[in-house]
């Protein structure tokens, strides 16, 4: 059953995405440094995008929390992050155009940074406070084993020419295991979590 709230939210999300994509002022400002183009963009972001986010936090999320406890999964949104990260990694590995490649890498950095921040601020404190040392060690061993398996598989299927570029000192934008955790850990992140782990 799709009610008025769901339909309205989907329509507004689509509208915001369309407006953001249509912000040619972003490109104009990047090319010319136009103060007016930047001001127009900031007005859209502060006048439409941020109020939408604040309204969700004030009214939508309190209604969603009990629904997740009853029928959902607390980690579902993080798994969607992983889907986006894996897609970006795949596209980076096959992209030839330098400008498109740059945009993809910047997008990956932004998504991955946000993903790590959510794990650091939400998941890790819960684990530290409520999961036994034995359970933590068991999970860590499993994550290391998963990461080693993915690294071996990625090395066996490395595209021809990629190794030579890396040996020559070129930047390789594809994480070794096709996983977000293959990137350097965020500041303050506990050392050791391998690629392929949860989150």
Would you kindly provide a written description of the structure presented here, covering whatever features stand out?
The protein is extended and about 60 Å long. The model is unreliable at 159-199 (pLDDT under 50). The chain folds into two domains: 1-72; 73-157 and 172-191. The protein is built from seven helices and no strands. The chain is mainly α. 10% of the residues are buried. Helices cover 73% and strands 0% of the residues. It has helices spanning 4-21, 24-32, 35-71, 76-94, 98-130, 133-156, 162-167.
Write the layout of secondary structure elements.
Blueprint: H1 4-21, H2 24-32, H3 35-71, H4 76-94, H5 98-130, H6 133-156, H7 162-167
Helix pairs in contact: 2-3, 4-5
Q: Low-confidence spans: pLDDT under 50, at least 5 residues?
A: 159-199
Strand content: under 5%
**Can you tell me the overall shape?**
extended
What is the alpha-carbon Rg in Å? 21 Å
Straight-line N-to-C gap: 30 Å
Mean pLDDT: 79
Major β-sheet profile = none
| Helical residue percent band | over 70%
**DSSP summary, beta strand count:** 0
Count of distinct structural domains: 2
Separate helix tally: 7
Helix and strand run: HHHHHHH
What structural class should be given to the helix and strand makeup?
mainly alpha
């Amino acid at each position: 059953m799709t009610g008025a709230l769901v339909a309205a939210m989907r329509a507004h999300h689509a509208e915001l995405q369309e407006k953001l994509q249509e912000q040619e002022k972003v490109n104009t400002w990047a090319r010319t440094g136009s103060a007016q183009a930047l001001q127009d963009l900031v007005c859209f972001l502060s006048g439409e995008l941020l109020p939408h986010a604040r309204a969700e936090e004030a009214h939508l999320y309190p209604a969603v929390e009990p629904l997740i406890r009853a029928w959902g999964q607390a980690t579902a949104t993080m798994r969607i992050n992983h889907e986006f990260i894996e897609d970006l990694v795949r596209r980076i590995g096959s992209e030839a155009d330098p400008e498109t490649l740059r945009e993809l890498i910047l997008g990956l950095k932004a998504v991955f940074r946000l993903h790590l921040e959510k794990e650091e601020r939400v998941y890790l404190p819960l684990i530290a406070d409520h999961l036994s040392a034995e359970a933590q060690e068991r999970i860590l061993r499993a994550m290391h084993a998963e990461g080693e398996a993915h690294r071996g598989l990625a090395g066996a299927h490395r595209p021809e020419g990629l190794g030579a570029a890396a040996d020559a000192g070129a930047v390789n934008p594809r994480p070794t295991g096709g996983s977000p955790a293959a990137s350097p850990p965020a500041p303050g992140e506990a050392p050791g979590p391998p690629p392929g782990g949860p989150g």
